[in-house]
């Protein structure tokens, strides 16, 4: 292996190998490939050309992953974030009756602001100001959140009017694919088989194809759809950002992406063991990578891009360097042409991986000082808030708002970083804005 490559990505130092990094990158891609189909569907509801969104999603994701891998050297992938794309389509375009072209202009302006505050290290300062206990809670909360997504996508839990959620239907054949994948992956993980999560996903896909529960793709290759309907539209309509309503939309795009990404980066860094003295090394480069990807995505024609929690699947397989993210980025480029093949990776295939990764990330709960109520209450609200609100940023808000209050009550107010007091007021405003938009 090239010595310079080894040194740059710290492959030996992080006790990993190139094949392991490539496997991790592929695992991450398989875990998040659904966004290539979900994002066009969501934005398509707002009247945006689905084909253009498909290509924009792939390219914006690839740009973010490659930047994260080459510059920040982290195994963290990026893509258009779920939740904020729904806000774009259903709240802004359909609810507020804002033309989708103007909504893209809102994303572009938010991305520019995002880039500026990243350049001035404001995001870096905020991430470093969050206390260690809350960082452990964020990582654990994300674990519960993605496990909840996996349980729901796999059909093991479902909506229930009487109890909010309940056990899913075992009469649905595809649910048994999830059960098979979960049991097999669990056995592989307990036996410490390398790449157990990926092997579990592969075996579940094969079983689905053999039983007819997953349809065989009709073809392997397909040309990437044209970007023409969305490319540069946001820039052309920047003059439409001329009302209080539109600035509220811009602010919402900015805040949700800001705190979603902050929470995700912290959680993934905790999982991978990157945190040193409660700080994330090279966090500035990681933040610059995702903010540049968000700007690129707004020009290409997609909703805000951010760090993806599914990166935890690659980290769980052993990904520790930027080679993981680079692999994921290359897969997104190839994914544009192999779109028919991606249909084999159904939610039931990825669900077991997300559940197991949730188990791995939840281990950080052991590091929270649960015996100190001033820490335990905000940490608990973060851990429980993320899955129950179905939002990383909302769960983070619950804990950050509570933290200064409980610390002052414990006569430990002086130990709270000044930025945490600033975040207290920012999150109150953030929650109010979200409530108004809902």
Strand order of the largest sheet: 1-4
N-to-C CA distance: 53 Å
Please tell me how large the radius of gyration is. Answer: 21 Å
Number of strands: 4
Give a short account of the largest sheet: 2 strands, antiparallel
* Secondary structure: helix percent: 55-70%
Give the count of structural domains: 1
Low-confidence parts = none
Question: Roughly what fraction of the amino acids lie in strands?
Answer: under 5%
User: Average pLDDT across residues?
Assistant: 90
- Shape verdict: globular
**What's the total helix number?**
19
Global structural class: mainly alpha
The helix/strand series, from N terminus to C terminus, equals: HHHHEHHHHEEHHHHHEHHHHHH
GO molecular function, one term: purine nucleobase transmembrane transporter activity
InterPro entries: Azg-like, Azg-like_bact_archaea, NCS2
Subcellular location: Cell membrane
Keywords: Cell membrane, Membrane, Transmembrane, Transmembrane helix, Transport
What would you note in describing this structure?
This protein is mainly alpha-helical and 438 residues long. The chain has one domain. 67% of the residues lie in helices and 3% in strands. It contains 19 helices and four strands. The strands form two sheets. The chain has a two-stranded antiparallel sheet. A hairpin with a 3-residue loop joins strand 2 (157-160) and strand 3 (164-167). Helix 6 runs antiparallel to helix 13 (283-300). It starts with a helix and ends with a helix. The relative contact order is 0.21. The mean pLDDT is 90.
